[in-house]
Fold this sequence. Notes:
Shape: extended
Oligomer: single chain
Radius of gyration: 43 Å
Number of helices: 7
Largest sheet: 3 strands, antiparallel
Number of strands: 10
Distance between the termini: 165 Å
Strand order of the largest sheet: 5-6-7
Helix content: 10-25%
Amino acid sequence: NAMRFAVRTLLPYDIDRPERKAVVPRPFRKRRTGMEQPRAFVRLTAGSQTKDSWLAVLPQGATEAFTAEELVRVAEGDRSASLILRYDAVDVGFRLRLAEFQRKMDPGTTQPSHYASLVDLYVPTETAERFGRPPADNPDAEELHDAGLTLVQPGILITLNHPVNLSDPRSGRTYRLYQEAFNGPFRPGDPVFERVLGPGSAKSELYASILTVNYDPGRGLKYFGSLLIVGGILIMYRMRAYFFRRRSREGMTADSLSEPGVQKKRPLGDEIRVATETAAAGQEESVVAPRR
Length: 292
């Protein structure tokens, strides 16, 4: 039987430079908007061995590599070197465990109208004993004690537009936590699902809740300044009649009437009476003059 071969991918090859590698583009995916994980091009050297690779960053919260793209390893004899890439982390003094994720959809759509996170607050056991934080009732107390954590407050609800304040028991700093977004659902076969729950999990869906942590020591001063601005606006509104009122005729003083350029006004009745008296006086003078 005749066999037919078709060229699927043509890779350039230089006989004079066999060490030169060809770069093959990834297949185009229309629904894909970007990289699933940020990557960095790294070069790892151990002895005389060197390896270049695009290293994927570990997902937030992960401590160990799960796929080959998240780890670069070079070995030479009994010497080896490995490299992983993590996000920068700041120790806030406590840990949160997502106990339940709540989500509601708009009727007839796939858009979420409400989502919230129900979390449990843990602190290191050494910190809890040092600062006298009493542990809360927890059925997994032994397992958490082996991990060095103690449950101090269960069932904290973080929802949209309703942040919560949590304090670091060591430094006393207060952090405000906001419900920002969520990822998922992840189902069996997805790398995130397999990483967190494992292949033998009985769950069918997994959600990842994204919280934003904010530390702002000057929040009280900003609120106080805002209250001063609002109070000033109210005072100006109430005292507008005092600063911008019109002067009445009764309120004009004699000094203001005697100033140059200010014409005195009299009522119409007074002007008629003065004119009558003047006319009468002139008539008397005209009568008396011929007698002289």
